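pinging the channel bc i need a second pair of eyes. not urgent but kinda urgent?? the chain im working w is below, pasted from the shared doc
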Amino acid sequence: MKVTKEIEKLEHSAAKLTVTVAKKDVSESYNETLGKYVKQVQIPGFRKGHVPASVLEHKFGEQIKMEAASDLIDKTLNEIFSDEKETENRPLPYAQPQLEKMPEFDVSKDFVYTVTYDVFPKVSVTDFSGIEVKEPQVSVGAAELEEELKGLQERNAVVIDKKDDEAVAKDDIVTINIVEKDDAGNDVAATKRDGFVFTVGTAENTYKIDDEVIGMKKDETKEISKSYAADDANADLAGKTKKYSVTVKQIKVRNLPALDDELAQDVNEKFKTLDDLKKDIQKQLEKAKERKVNEVKVNSLLSQLIEKYPFELPVSMINAELDGRWRMMARQFQTTPEELDKIVAASGQSKDAMLKEWTGDAEKMLKSRIIVDSLMKDKNISVTPEEIDAEYQKIADDNGLSLEEVKKHYDDVRAKEYLIDDTKEQKLYKLIFEQVKVSKGDKITFADLMKNQ
């Protein structure tokens, strides 16, 4: 088939493809379609397969032309996009080519049609001059170790009831019945809430009456007046003074285990002493710091590359990413995307507003991914089986696992592919950080580092 093509690049990583099919092939396509009608169509007065072509053309002429045109478009597009030379001009899988208008089909003329579609964005990172990555200065010391040990104690704590004559104290877990009072001292029935549980002295208490319940005992009732700041996060409370009747129904206390060898052994049998546990925690904190510092450096690098090498994303790519995020959110809520639409609408929110809010982050993620893919190809980044074996050993050492356990986990094809891709990326970043200026950043705490998004 004699086909000529002309591709015009459009904005937002779109392309306009104009295809011309020689009239000889147009005629053959028409005759092929007409032949199908001759074999298949039944008309009264004629045996099947013996209807004259002229009769069929008179009765189904336009339909035959339309079908022949559609077949011609499908065949030529498949031929063009299957050409290895047209890799960068292929349409994105989720953005089918759109026919601008149905062209005229005349067997005595060339057949010309035009389609537009989105293509994969192209970016070329040629140098890293002007890019400076600041590395946060973070130390992991006694304070961080103590915080981890405290969390470990709380996770292994035993919750027990306080004695009836013991009063509420900070860090106690209390259950209360609460109701708002009006100016006349009557209960506001709609505000009544029984069995409200919170830990005294934490952010878990919506009513912010932690200080007021300290000292109360089980089954004690107390009238409380509470004034809220004008900028309180709860709009129903901001700038108001509320009166409540509060009854303490239950008081529990967390019985924290002692920091000793026994606790260490309870956490994991591989620890014989508390010192063994502390060393392991310190090691894990250092590893977490290392990973997070690297993540901060990578994010800074990619943000600067996006700024230095601007390019446009096709709308279909952004929409596909947002749709994927919406579906992931639905899975997290253990529902369908359609049901999530209804849940969000019922809560007074707007799906469109939420997607719009996500767009900036989605665009940055997509651009980062495209830049990384481009650099991978340009620098021909690959990994050897030996390098993957080294990663297995590193994972085993970092997590206290045997090499066999790690390899068994990565028997899963997708898990192994993820590891290979991540190893290639880290290899790329290491190479780039040798080419850009990396300087010392601000000193920050470990806690602030881990909050860094």
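so The radius of gyration is 34 Å. and The longest helix spans residues 274-308. — does that match what u expected or am i reading it wrong
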